[in-house]
TrEMBL record:
Residues 44-53 have a biased composition (Low complexity). Keywords: Glycosyltransferase, Membrane, Transferase, Transmembrane, Transmembrane helix. The chain crosses the membrane at residues 662-682. One of its GO terms (cellular component) is cytosol. This is Uncharacterized protein.
Length: 683
């Protein structure tokens, strides 16, 4: 593949000597705990929520984290109209800092979860950079709507979760205007990174499906940028992905990274299959790493499930409010077995299937009526639309039907807890639940079972720590939880019996399953995940300065060709000079695509081709061979007029040799070596 891409290198211009942009200075250190640090900005000026600290020296290394949303909470005071900013302690992008060395600076690029007026954007940007090391992107409303709510949430999200838009009522179809907004939004994010990056030193880590083509824009600007990408959603099978009209553009953007990460082997396998089927790329596994050879570059594929932040969860569980809420819930559900579900209001979370299984459980096992409660916490939906409303209506209708059928005064089988629910309340529900059910029909990682296990471990109990997890086999965390009860969420009977098994399971087995899960979860937390990815990104970028890079292609088809430093561009003058200076020449020629256009209908060699071949063969210093995959009868017939021409048919299986008196002594040795190699090849 590389040789084909090098045919046009005569017209390429090397851009090895790019100008490095200056590093954003570290103007102010951020003191204290992230959750307590805040900053305020009013329409009239700036006001600080904390004391100023001394200027810190610039660190030796820096990581630029690029995500759709910054790890910042932004609210406006209703009385003073001031903006109040603080770190979002629940944000994965903030938590991953724990995996980096202490001397590494982390800079964030992303959008805010609030609308900032154009007149305030410069001041807000200054505050976020100086105080929080964040570089905000501000998208025009129309672009934001088409980019996020249109292409990301209504097209990409369902497609990556195996939902094809077979009709207008079953998902949105591809919209060129939304795709263009997606491209423009990615370019705006890339421009923000370009403003602050030091391409010689910084490592860039891009997150999730919102920014899948951003790597192409960065690689086009900085050929040696150290670039990693992690996909937090599922990657569909090739049969689903191939329906995407812009499939090649997105795949090539992935391949413009140095390292691409997935939660599970299945997601990585699907990606590799797409690269093989649609781009013709091969991959190899070596020393535990999977590598794709892409125009001379090795793109490393990493399988790395994300974890939770143990420290942040411990701090929540240690709060007096959490402990108080735990005691309240124990009293409320005394004498009952609590099964917990925590899900976003989403089409793929399987909420209605979970309710059907609960109804089946109470129908089959009458003794459990009045003793088992399914508490369902519903987080607010991340998007809006008819599909979300349909899920809400169906779930509420099913819950009402089951409660009416099996409920009685003082007992409801299904308890709805509509969000938003505070972190402390969620932790309390986790702590008092005997079983946790994650029933999604398709999901990325889903850390609910991890959080549940840790809450059951930390909260004090009279009995040894116990927990049972029922997990869908279609979500990312399933392979990591070897002690969980895996179910097919579409099989209602299977899920119902899993619930019954969890309820009736002996305490000793519950304890063993819990300990097994907790040991894995506590050792594979978010810091471990970030540290592992960061180390692999450094490893993937080690050879950046050992090669020369050339840009090929336009627009989203842009890619980099990596060449050995000793590589020289093909020079006709050098070839002619070397040709005249040699006394023995071996000339090996392909036929289709070389001597004849690949798309030509008439495959017979033209008189001009035969004339040129006879001219080359007439020189006693030349030995000319045609090597082709065509059969021997066809080649013998076509090149019968060239009696001094050697033929190698069917890729060397049949060979017509040149009469020996035409072959010089050196060329004869070369032919013998070629024949030895042919004999060593199977077939």
């Amino acid at each position: 593949m590389l040789s084909r891409s090098c045919l046009g290198l005569l017209n390429l211009v090397s851009v090895d000597d790019y100008q490095a942009l200056s590093r954003v200075p570290s103007l102010m250190a951020v003191p204290g705990e992230p959750t307590r640090d805040s900053y305020q900005i009013s329409r009239d000026g700036l006001s600080s929520g904390g004391s100023d600290d001394a200027v810190s020296p610039p660190p030796q290394e820096r990581r630029i984290i690029v995500a759709n949303q910054l790890p910042i909470k932004a609210t406006r005071d209703s009385d003073t109209k001031k903006w109040i900013f603080e770190y979002d302690a629940d944000s994965l992008y903030l938590q991953l800092k724990d995996g980096f060395p202490s001397d590494v600076e982390v800079l964030y690029v992303g959008s805010l979860k609030a609308d900032v007026e154009a007149s305030e954007q410069d001041e807000v940007s200054q505050v976020l950079l100086e105080r929080f090391r964040c570089v905000p992107t501000f998208l025009p409303w129309e672009i934001q709507n088409k980019f996020y709510h249109g292409f990301c949430k209504h097209y990409l999200w369902p497609l990556f979760h195996y939902m094809l838009p077979m009709s207008p009522s079953h998902g949105a179809r591809f919209d060129r205007a939304q795709w263009q907004a997606y491209v423009l939004a990615n370019k705006i994010f890339a421009d923000k990174v370009t403003e602050v990056i030091n391409p010689d030193e910084d490592f860039v880590w891009v997150h999730d499906y919102h920014l899948m083509i951003l790597p192409t824009f960065l690689r086009k600007r900085f050929h040696r940028v150290k670039l990693g990408f992690f996909l937090h959603s599922p990657f569909p099978s090739s049969e689903i992905y191939r329906t995407l009209p812009v499939r090649d553009d997105i795949l090539r953007a992935f391949l413009n990274c140095d390292l691409v990460g997935f939660h599970t082997f299945d997601y990585a396998r699907h990606f590799l299959s797409c690269c093989s089927r649609m781009l013709g790329l091969d991959y190899e596994s070596k020393r535990g790493y999977i590598g794709l050879d892409y125009y001379g570059r090795t793109v490393t594929i990493k399988i790395l499930p994300v974890g939770i932040h143990m420290g942040q969860l411990r701090s929540v569980l240690s709060l007096p409010r959490t402990a108080k809420r735990v005691e309240e819930l124990k009293v409320e559900y005394e004498g009952k077995v609590v099964i917990l579900g925590v899900d976003d209001m989403d089409l793929f979370k399987g909420i209605s299937l979970k309710f059907l299984a609960m109804g089946q459980l109470l129908e089959v096992h009458e003794a459990l009526r009045g003793k088992v409660v399914l508490v369902q916490i519903l987080n607010p939906a991340r998007s809006s639309g008819k599909d979300i409303q349909d899920v809400k209506n169906e779930s509420e209708a099913l819950a009402k039907e089951i409660n009416d059928k099996y409920g009685r005064p003082g007992y409801q089988p299904i308890v709805f807890v509509n969000g938003p629910v505070s972190t402390e309340d969620k932790a309390a529900y986790y702590a008092i639940s005997e079983c946790c059910v994650v029933n999604a029909v398709r999901d990325g990682m889903n850390l609910v079972p991890y959080t549940y296990t840790v809450c059951r471990q930390i909260v004090e109990s009279e009995r040894p720590n116990q927990s049972v997890i029922i997990v869908s086999e279609f979500i990312g965390c399933s392979p990591s939880l070897s002690g969980a009860i895996r179910v097919n969420p579409w099989n209602i009977d299977d899920v119902s019996e899993a619930m019954n098994s969890a309820i009736t399971m002996p305490d000793g087995e519950k304890h063993l399953r819990h300990e097994k899960h907790y040991k894995y979860i506590s050792s594979h937390d978010v810091a471990y995940w970030a540290r592992s990815f960061d180390q692999d990104l450094e490893r993937a970028c080690r050879e950046h300065y050992l090669k020369r890079y050339w840009g090929v292609g336009f627009g989203l088809g842009f890619r980099i060709v990596a060449l050995d430093p000793t590589f020289r561009k093909l020079s006709v003058d050098n070839i002619v000079s070397a040709y005249k200076a040699t006394h023995s020449r071996l000339i090996l020629l392909d036929y289709d695509g070389t001597m004849l256009p690949q798309a030509s209908i008439n495959k017979t060699p033209s008189p001009e081709v035969l004339s040129v071949l006879n001219y080359l063969c007439s020189d006693p210093k030349n030995m000319v061979f045609i090597v082709s995959g065509r059969d021997k009868d066809c080649l013998s017939k076509w090149f019968d007029p060239c009696d001094k021409l050697g033929l190698s048919a069917e890729h060397g299986y049949f060979t017509r040799y040149i009469t020996l008196h035409y072959i010089g002594p050196i060329c004869f040795v070369i032919v013998r070596l070629i024949l030895v190699c042919v004999d060593c090849v199977a077939g």
